[in-house]
Amino acid sequence: MKLEVGIIGGAGYTAGELIRLLLNHPNTNINFIFSTSNAGNKVYKIHQDLIGSTELTFTDTINPNVDVLFLCLGHGNSTAFLEKNEFSNATKIIDLSNDFRLKADETLDNKTFVYGLPELQKEKIVTANYIANPGCFATALQLAILPLAANGLLKDDVHINAVTGATGAGTSLSKTTHFTWRDNNFSHYKAFNHQHLGEINQTIQQLQSGCKSEVFFMPNRGNFSRGIFATTYTTFDGTAEEGIALYKEFYKDAKFTFVSDEAVHMKQVVNTNKCIVGVEKHGNKLLITSVIDNLLKGASGQAIQNMNLMYDFEETLGLNLKANYF
């Protein structure tokens, strides 16, 4: 079964990773890659790692009858695009922006978007036609919190410090994305007010209704290209062994989330769709370290994982990737 796939917003980082994955997925054919600013150009002129891999050309026209549509647009633009363009009722849509992640925004023209975090609600994803793909920070941080919330164990505030690579800011240049600013530098941004907190708090309430714990999140910019390293801690009454057992039990059937017995680091996951979680006990605090590739498990890889679930493919199909360990 070959799915005909369309990509909207084909020039960005997430689109580039999505194209690479789809070209190597045995059950997909890229029907078109939409980019008004690059129409007529070869895809490998923008995504230069794809030279020799494809002769596809960007287009400014769409095929409304594709099986799957991936929206790789800037936040706020997916809604506008879908309001202007109609697709077949049989077309399934996976949106990588934040337009439909929160329940207040999940419906558009009778399209109900399901929040696409497989470790949270795989059963809903399997039967969904429209997916709101989670944010990168939101993925890493929720995977650190889910087992506690699912067992009603969030009894105190949650403190998070996380750092992301430069690709997390997208391809548009700003003063904080230039090499001369990023190199040998480190900074925080959107302190305690990052947009992904909405997703995180929504999930906590879904799993532990009435939870009063507040999430304090400090996002940081790192001087590397890709990856997220997050440390999360909160009060926990059990032992270290009980904490580790809790996490291993929760993720025992997860295809891409693994609990490590040792300290984790980013090189274990960069260029993969994995999340690796480390669990430690320090005094009365449980420390959870979670690492992901922000462009894969945090975006395009998870989008392919959701597509696989929606079409009853093997969940790992096209996603058995080697980490850039050395």
Describe this structure in words.
By secondary structure, the protein is α/β, with parallel strands linked by helices. It has helices at residues 13-23, 43-46, 77-84, 118-126, 136-150, 179-182, 197-207, 240-250, 300-310; strands at 3-8, 28-34, 68-71, 92-95, 107-108, 111-112, 114-115, 130-132, 158-164, 187-188, 215-221, 228-235, 257-260, 275-282, 285-292. The protein has a seven-stranded mixed beta sheet with strand order 10-11-9-12-15-14-13. Helix 4 (118-126) runs parallel beside helix 9 (300-310) and helix 5 packs parallel to helix 7. It is globular. The relative contact order is 0.15.
N-end to C-end Cα span: 36 Å
Number of E-type strands: 15
Q: Which range best describes the helical content: under 10%, 10-25%, 25-40%, 40-55%, 55-70% or over 70%?
A: 25-40%
Low-confidence stretches: none
The major β-sheet equals: 7 strands, mixed
* Beta-strand percent range: 15-25%
Rounded radius of gyration (Å): 19 Å
Q: Strand order of the main beta sheet, please?
A: 10-11-9-12-15-14-13
Number of helices: 9
Q: Structural class of the secondary structure composition?
A: alpha/beta
**Backbone shape:** globular
Order of helices and strands: EHEHEHEEEEHEHEHEHEEHEEEH
Mean pLDDT: 93
How would you summarize what this structure contains?
This protein has nine helices and 15 strands.
